[in-house]
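HOLO CASE FILE
Compound: AHM
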Amino acid sequence: MTEIIDSFKKIAIEISEAIKTKDTGKVETQNSSGDIQAKLDVISDEIVEKHLLNLPSVKEIISEEKESAVSKNEGKYLVAYDPLDGSSLIDVDLSVGTIFGIYENGYNGENIVASGYIVYGPRVELVVARDIVEMFRLNEKTKEFEFVKEINLDKKGKILGPGGTQKYWYPYHKKMIDDLFMEGYRLRYSGGMVPDLHQILLKGGGLFAYPGAEDKPKGKLRKLFEVFPFAYVYKKAGGFAIDGENDLLELETKHPHDTTPCFFGSEYEIKRVKEVYKGQK
Ligand code: AHM
Ligand code: MG
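Model generated. Tokens follow.
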């Protein structure tokens, strides 16, 4: 496990360098989820693959940019990752990230044993969830990640990141978001789940929502590469992660690119979501 986490420190340095120096344009192909890929999506995927396949403890890898898993004849961990989440923000120079989940014996929510993410912002930060959630920051001079602090969520926050296209939101979802704004919550949504969820974690709490809606009943965000890893981080930080009703880590996956509605937050906000979503399906 530690060798995988250490490997993501090297990966972070390489991807960060690529973001600063490589072409920010698109490629002609689409990835397995049907998204138009940025050149940096492909480069980042290759960087992660190169590092992970070298590790004896890794049995299999799968990424948002791959149709299916790449397996080896050794190791015990399965690593699912999104090499460059939020890559549509690259050309406007907003923060992007890498997300990873480490699984054992399968890719259902209950199989995740550790997870983490890297934020490529003005500084490069790494958050790792094992028994606790720890944050590290890259020292650009020494190229070492230095421990910053343990992350713990408060019971109630002040910020709200409501994803999806408002035109297609279900009426009860719209009312819930409106009510929270009227309670005093402030909007914090960049369009990159890594910096958006990182902000909620570091500001003590709040709510990030990417709901099911008329245009996308199962939401947009993928279980393996985005949702389960962040659900694990939020739960280990004392927060909650649900699909409206159920704990996200109780969900199963049929296809590697399955998506789910998702809500991440602290106790108060997730209780509100549950009250609103009860009996709506
Ligand atoms: P990506 O993996 O193709 O980059 O898409 C995931 C991103 C998330 O980072 C973000 O929360 C979401 O898509 C934003 O979607 P939208 O543009 O619909 O608000
Ligand atoms: Mg993504």
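CASE NOTES: The longest strand covers residues 77-85. Residues 2-21 form the longest helix (20 residues).
CLOSED: yes
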